């Protein structure tokens, strides 16, 4: 089954393995005459790039993107945009010892069960390296959306330690190696993660992505709801185990009167909401409020702590993963979550335009 | 945009409004020569049917399904299966007062913003009545999956009150009006919900659906991952605001060694797992363990407590919803969640078969 | 595989068998606030209806359509439009003798080979009765396209007898039982077909469909070209064996200078073409000229002339089809071809609007 | 709209322009553990490669393919296969004079009308160079189909000159520069085309593609019929204006008894057919006979004969195309038609397997 594409009108397809010659993405369905340069994309790739602090994998990849098609004289032509990112730092020897064993909690075993063959070098196709392609596609999606839609992400929890939302400051997100909107929590995380790293362990996280400027009316009931597509988008990011919109799981404990966001006339004649438990989506359609998504990232299973497992012959073994890994893969998931939000919104912007005939 | 279909190979399309003459579903892609009768479907519809206890809406609908095509002499023919459910108890007068106002927290406003027109009778297309079609499709999906895959759902939380998992007994789920696997909690919920109902309020819930017997290997990386499709499937159910797989959001707080499910050789030569934090899915592919999904259902916004809102002219107003409603819509979401699980699995069973050439 | 849907944004799904209780279609992706009534659809169904002359099957079907969803107070709501047509004149006894034999040239054998079961009553799903649903969907598509796009079809050949294009008069198409634009040829066809019918034989035909008012710019290279989608659309009509655009197969014998349609400035500032060998499509995109499609319909294999065949046990047999049939199924294919043209164009209008943000 | 992908389960996506740095294709949905090397693909690319005789364009492109992903240790892994073909001989100066004018009969004008921008170098995305990617994808599709399905193509008409089918010899197809199965006709074509070339003109052609070994049962009624998908597949090849299956347009002039292929028991217990007017497809499903498709290729509009046209400002002009071009683009369409046949069949093989659970 051809599962390497995402989106309907704004649609991208990715290819490439962690330790192959390159990874890439074809972005199809992009309207013409939009300005697009490699720098527009590189900016976002640089935010996801590994090796930028001691809290992410030490693999050194410049992640330099090349545009091979679909752009002419600085503008999109409406033809598919072929993007390439060469792999450079593929130390395959690091991974030789996992060729015949399955890391518990990793896709090693399921790829083997499904395909009967596995490119074990660096996790092959199941590596988070694939997310570079998502970020590249997301950069194009932002161009499609235009400046009126603003998408930002932040890490809101590492292990058991959540940010203090009263101290939330978007301006500080890029000031620390965690995309943390609360500098005090960032300091605490640094200490905590140093301990995790020293133990050869890893830890999970929660990412929040917010899109402002989405007009009311995007999203297609019943099965192509905006939140349904966002849930799929985020859940397909490596290591994600949960997704919620607005109040999310907390809504289960609310009463109807507390959960329903009251509406009133806004001074400008539009509608304003007293709260945003809905996370900007009702009935699968955007309300005009910020679209708010959170997703949980599990701790990576590539750790130095020995774990019991089996090998390809079914024999018992013990696994220790010595390669270069992220103690908290959730950190680098922030720009990936932003990218997926951008791709879903660009798709729904175009879908809505097809229906409405308008420019939104 | 055509958003009323779900699935790729096993694919269904629904139509119909809450107070129109009927709702229906076309189930396409069903293999031939499977035994299928209306009773097979009715059984599941009856579990979702309203009016069976004081804790669900008092609308009286027999929800009788008719098979109009795709079955010949008791067997599926490979042609699309057209299913109809007539609407009978459409007391439209109940809803006349919401024709011009938007219930806060409801899709009233977003449908209006998107379409500029709204079938306000009983919520029209945004009504949970659409979920009867999902349940009917799910019944067909179960036939496609066959008896080796067992799908069961339960309500695990109402408002702030969760079940005690130590008392979990699947056998008791159908003994109480809540699909509760823990009879003691069911009693507690009855008292609690009586209070909610008397206050004219409503409350949220959490549903858990478990599929046993799914072999390792189903699911298509990268964007058609089994858990990605499940997340979309559940998030598109009315009022759902969060979805998680296995340990879900709790995984964020776990260490890598605690989260990774250790593997060992099973006595029968297969692989066994020491735990199931993964919820039966790794890298988007089933592990062979039970597939475990949970989703949060918000409290309905159709309540007797007055809430501030606006009308179609943008003027301030107050809304009280007097119609027949569920104090806890999460209850009837249990068979709906089971149905969506069945549909996702049937689709992926067929996708996998296309790839592998096998019978799984 | 779920093959009973057509289109991407404007998308319809059909169900139902020739001798089941009903056939139907769900039309999804229709923009809201378009006026739509059953009469709008019935008008086109009546043109396809059987039994209107001695040259079509004598099956008596009123083909009365009912709108079951998606329309509220006379306007589309953006929700899926469920349409039903009851089957009334199912004389199943006529077909009892083909339950165990395969008509040569008919889908009897291939359905059996594929599905291992077959609803033999009147051809079941493979019956041309399914095309009533196409016509209903096409009527909705015309509403989506609006009055600026005009779609007309005509029969241009029956057996070896083609119309004289110098006598082409669109006004006369509905004056004869053949949708023939040339009354003299219509008279000739009447005589010819009477002979065919008396012999218990059947004969093929060629249909031409022309869409005027399609602006330049519709169609999506490379694989969703306007002509590619038209080719698929027409080829999936029962009994169609060939499709061509503009000059079609005759283009093979032309020189480049004769085939290329010269362009010049039009008085109104637009572009005018000296000819239309392209049939209104270049590079998969509409040119602004009329879109011209022709398709060949084979003679039906349901004939009184005995033919050699096999039965379900593989034994030799002889087949004579005594049921009610069309001596020239191509006649009733005219409104079906128009409908498919309308559906393809409505889909591409919306696709183009998604890209361009305009109203075309 | 994202129109650069083809297929459902076996699905490929192409990118790249005629004079960009490269063209490429991502082939997704390929089953794992199939042997695949660059040589397997190169073999087919070499048959399509330009510059191999005086009858095709003199552009010199080695068309060397590189596999960048999806293959590990010589076997497919089930991950997307990224294929690259560098462009080498992009003499852009040849095309400078068409930057501001539209070649009549070419996609120049429609791309401009649709996108408002155009990569005019060598036709950009609308160049037949894109078909190299189809051929590469088709080579992979052949591996998926395996040796039991044999796909061969031939040129059966150039200009008004058709082959003599009594002299058809598949063994001779690769002996001449035309893929002509009849050497005497090939000689005649050489003379004829020399004249066309000297006049600076071009001429059309008809290609026939035959697939043997396709079992009965492939194809999905109603809208995903095997012949519907083949029609779309062939019609989307550059310059194709007509597609027919089996007897095709000639079927219009046949009687029902002449057209219907009689069946009888075969000595081996299967069914044999007395003829193949159906071209191997009935009701959209394969019959087990050879699948026979023909398509008409128009003469290229890139000719030395001056033609009237307009420029981007709408002013009248005259166009002469001096670049390197094929006097008969139909020749190189033969391997492209074979490739599309292979892709459609591989997709339907997998679709059928999903339904049937078998290995066909």
3D structure, described in words:
4 copies of one chain form a homotetramer. The first copy, chain A, is built from 7 helices and 18 strands. By secondary structure, chain A is α+β, with helices and mostly antiparallel strands. In chain A, the strands form 6 sheets. In chain A, strands 1-2-3-7-4 form a 5-stranded antiparallel beta sheet, with helices on one face. The first copy, chain A, has a 5-stranded antiparallel beta sheet with strand order 9-8-10-16-11. Chain A has a two-stranded antiparallel sheet with strand order 5-6. Chain A is globular. Chain A starts with a strand and ends with a helix. Chains in contact: A-B, A-C, A-D, B-C, B-D, C-D. At the B-C interface, strand 2, strand 3, strand 6 and helix 2 of B face strand 2, strand 3, strand 6 and helix 2 of C. Strand 11 of chain A pairs antiparallel with strand 11 of chain B.
